[in-house]
Amino acid sequence: MKTLILAGGKGTRLFPLSRKKYPKQFVKFPSQESLFQQTLKRSLKISSPEDIFILTNKDYLFLIKNQIEECCPNIWKILEKRIILEPVARNTAPAIALAIKYLMDVENINIEESLFITPSDHLLEPVDNFISLIEKAKTLATHDYLITFGIKPFRPDTGYGYIEVHNYKVNNIAFPVKKFHEKPNKTTAEMYLSKGTYYWNSGLFLFSINAILNEFKNHASEIYEKMVNTSYEEFLKQFINLPEISIDYAIMEKSNKLVMVPMENIKWYDLGSWDAYYEILPKDDKGNIFFNKENIISIESQNCFLYSEKLLCTIGLKDIIIINTDDVLLICKKGESQKVRDVLKILEQENRYKNLLENRTIVFRPWGAYKELERGDRYKIKKLIIKPGEALSLQLHHHRSEHWIVVKGTAKVVLEDEEGRLKEYYVHENESIFVPKSKKHRIINPGKLPLEIIEVQVGEYVEEDDIIRYDDIYNRI
Amino acid sequence: MKTLILAGGKGTRLFPLSRKKYPKQFVKFPSQESLFQQTLKRSLKISSPEDIFILTNKDYLFLIKNQIEECCPNIWKILEKRIILEPVARNTAPAIALAIKYLMDVENINIEESLFITPSDHLLEPVDNFISLIEKAKTLATHDYLITFGIKPFRPDTGYGYIEVHNYKVNNIAFPVKKFHEKPNKTTAEMYLSKGTYYWNSGLFLFSINAILNEFKNHASEIYEKMVNTSYEEFLKQFINLPEISIDYAIMEKSNKLVMVPMENIKWYDLGSWDAYYEILPKDDKGNIFFNKENIISIESQNCFLYSEKLLCTIGLKDIIIINTDDVLLICKKGESQKVRDVLKILEQENRYKNLLENRTIVFRPWGAYKELERGDRYKIKKLIIKPGEALSLQLHHHRSEHWIVVKGTAKVVLEDEEGRLKEYYVHENESIFVPKSKKHRIINPGKLPLEIIEVQVGEYVEEDDIIRYDDIYNRI
Fold first, then answer.
1. I want to staple B190 with a disulfide (CB 3.0 to 4.6 A). Which of A460, B25, B156, B157 is the partner?
2. Is ipTM > 0.90 here?
3. Does an H or E element contain B40, and which?
4. B280 phi/psi in degrees, rounded to 5
5. Chain A: residue nearest B296 by CA?
6. Of A373, A403, A111, A387, the residue nearest B372 (C-alpha)
7. Of A316, A328, A432, the CB nearest to B333
8. Contact A337 B315 (CB under 8 A)
């Protein structure tokens, strides 16, 4: 069985821990493993690394590389070849069509093969119960069923889509699906809850490639035509013209091959807001959750959710959520955290804080990461952390020179001399080197430990786009 | 008339804007002028610069220098010689005795001279009304009265001391004082308010040196003996042994020469808590105060006081005070901000965040200021801003070397060479210089504009106390 991990989602609702270029699935909260990393590890219990594919877009490629190298370092080389990049963000129907097309045309996979599709931004536990369930559901896929997975609701949630099923089972495990329902209002959600035949839609799917192809043919012919009549390269080119539509809407709502396996004895959480995190995390006897407790002095708090990356002192707070990162502070009455979207909308409209909306102060790059420490009128200071064996591309800047001071490790620096020749220098801890304007340069970490460099840029313009690259060490982008 | 500005107070209640080494009187909030600067400007309308004296301690000397140079640059050279440093913090009785002793012995001032004493951490307005009042009160001082200034209370405040007066006037301007009362409880405060003969104690005084000497003699003989029988140097040495007692308690409560001038048509605020600031600052129609509004996105706030130095997003808050600096976040239910003291007590007891409790991230020095940008395992990065014409002391460090990169201005650097000779170098914008361990060095700003340097310290120990100074360019400390 193949597994397809959907990792291209924009997941903005965990702002300010999530950002545009660091969406929810990659955020390491509340554990030190991101939901993407947890999904990957779970998938490795379902499929071998060679059978795992990741669908994402180029903005997240560095993150995926960094996070796979971190949690499963041995399989990056295998997975690297199994990353499918969406040319642009379309909804899930075109995205899944692209993945199917890739599996058929590039990987030449037999269309009888089963495919398990999982989002990477949900919390699922315990993993073992989940694996057994997938094992049981597998046989259904060989009978050309499209299988969805539903969670028995325990409250009238208005944040999830619902799957309505018949009250009899197929193969003693799945209910035939009667209808898909979009996120309901409160009254409707209460009705769904009372009926007992409505389940939350988990967004997980299992089917054979053959079966889904048939359903594309029956219900999404525009996409299907392109899947069967064009080359993979051509399909990529035309991807932008495909209808922006979800797989639920395009196919699942219309298919009569659809069944739903209930996820019994499995906890599933979408965690789409800070309130959702408050619900699931353990609380003290005053109903408080303190994250990074060593940073928090809290007097007389009640039912608060406090997360802080610097010293936080609170006095007399009740029902308040505080998420305090090094560049943004979010404070929210409990129960109102879905309005984070409104905050983001305002920021977008006002066209402010562009950098901050895109990235945290740490920005991940293919070679490691950098952090901006200070920005002045004609200068900028960054800390670069370059992973062992990695290198920045050969580049030059016309508007700034750079001072590099190695504070940890050894750097191999390639630098253009007065005559235009590239020369190599080794710069050790506590040594520095000067890179003049308009001279080609590159940093390499030749060592076995991370290399840390303080970079002081000085010039009339110190933005990221003053860069001319002479090679691209990460050719896929 | 001489004026004595009391500027040695510890004013911690505006934490996190105030810190141990940056107390309330120097904080530039809500205006760009600190309360100390406002007090100085006010005093200049009462006395000429040559007649103004400042009582403080060495920890605040740089601040006083910086703030005087900023608001009244021409008089620093005059005032510099009129700063009286307390050897240790004692209460106001010894402090005022020290100032009197200084005026008599060092300045040889006639004991018939009047002295106006003003704290520097109160807000007083309008200034012109206040000046007229002092003018009127002056004649009373020549009749050997000790004059205090009282504010007609308009609410039963439990945070102020009260002065009870007789209901007849002396010289048509002052009421004889009946009794001093310490901060009352609510019921007592309500009684005071209803009586009409109780006033808030402003902490301002006016008297002749002769008159206060007499009262020291009558009521604080231990202090008086030292004032008349020792030299100024000896008095300084014995200062630590004087009783720690307030001038109110030692003298004012006991004197029968005491009168009170009511401060009519003058607004006076102690501003001892964030709640007090909320009361006096202008609010929008939802009762909100937003400081640094450009940093704030606020949805559905009501009666909130928000101050933030970085992006702050709030949703649905009511009656909340938020003070967000670059290193500390304080969030407090409105009405509870006096508990900031408890927060500080906890931090002290736990012996945490020592640097942060002492200073803001910008630390003022005699030559300018520095800001710590980043701290790593074996390195630290600082930005130094050196004022024109200023210099750091000649110094060396045994455990760290330093890289200096000039990002603005020109530095004159004195650096010890291999043979132990001191050599001078000019380092211009975008140039750098390396200072090895155990080599003497000094930075001088020879220019007309502030000099900005990025300093990267690398070594096995990068704390402030690894420093050996070879001279002290600020000999008074």
1. B156
2. no
3. helix B35-43
4. -90, -20
5. A329
6. A373
7. A316
8. yes
